[in-house]
Amino acid sequence: MDATADCSSLLRFIDASPTPFHAVESVARQLDAAGFQRCDEREDFGAAPPARGYLVRSGSIVAWAGERAALREHGARILGAHTDSPNLRLKARANTGAAGFRQLGVEVYGGVLLNSWLDRDLSLAGRVMVRTPRGAEARLVKHDGALLRIPQLAIHLDREVNTRGLVLDPQHHLAPVWGLGRTDEQLLQRFLAASLGCAAEDVLSWDLMLFDVVPSTFAGLNRELVFAPRLDNLCSCWCALEALLAHAAAGARGPLGVLCLFDHEEVGSTSDRGAQSPLLEYALERLLGEAGAGREAFHRAMARSMCASIDMAHATHPNYREKHEPEHWIALNAGPVIKINTNMRYATDAESEAAFQLAAERAGVPLQKYFHRSNLACGSTIGPLTAARLGVRTVDVGCAQLSMHSIRELCGALDPRFMARALAEFLAR
Question: How many CB atoms sit inside 10 A of residue 361's CB?
């Protein structure tokens, strides 16, 4: 298999999606090209919602392929992932500075490996709310050139950094430099206004994030690796989207195929569009429609449904093997990883595990199973949240990676396509 040819679109997707808002835009663009119809959740879905459709709520998106009758009769096969990644985000009063430098005030979003953001070529992307005659409107911004840098303190001024370790205070040590001169309270607003073609006073608010401008790339001796930002969890979003598109192209037979990409997983999913919100539940209820005879039909449909929660998995680190469960080592380019935790930090149980294992067999892809070390705290995913919200059997799966939550991460070049193929089979039955 030519890995670079098979997942080159993954790299393009990641580079085009520095924020959840851009990720949703990227997904919507591909859905549009495949004949999916955008629906407005503020409007009536009507007696016959489109057989290929989607709705957007800020940094989250729900898409489906199949007729309403498929949901009523066979339930749904749901692919869930998240669009957000740990990063640094601008404060509301972001213009700051000291010692002759112009800087921006930032806040840490999620479980960031802070040291990985030092001495990187950074820029800004996100959404800006702009005043218009029709009211406030959202505009996406993405500045591709190097704009910002968080400079690390020289070793001459921190002689023990390599023995004592680097300690970063998020309040004092992370403000990026983006120019020279006195602090200007309107500098950011004027910068944004120039790029958006509006007046500075019409820039009302923003959700802006820092990102690394270095493009994603294939790497390694045989180009068998991917080096990229935001693999957690844009790689999973790409795999799930590829699976839904393949399912739709094949005729979307069997259960209703559903894709749900949530924002805010990295900070607990408690928002209007996170996995703990009713976004997916309401979408499925509306797709079922009045013809489904209300909540009783919805409950029956959910009992026939299953969800695959797709989030990246820990590969066994060659330099820290002692941190991993010795009987469950995980390799790159060795196929999707089923993630299992007795305390339900992952939603997998024997039933959902077996269902995904059969899907991988039908797809002809290898499979791995991950257990966290018993003496280390285990992370979690949207899987348990979705399972609890909808009452659907759920399996947690992911592609293996290293450097999780770093500004630059690493995965195998074969695994994303392996995962997409397994997910397509999961959708089919």
Answer: 12
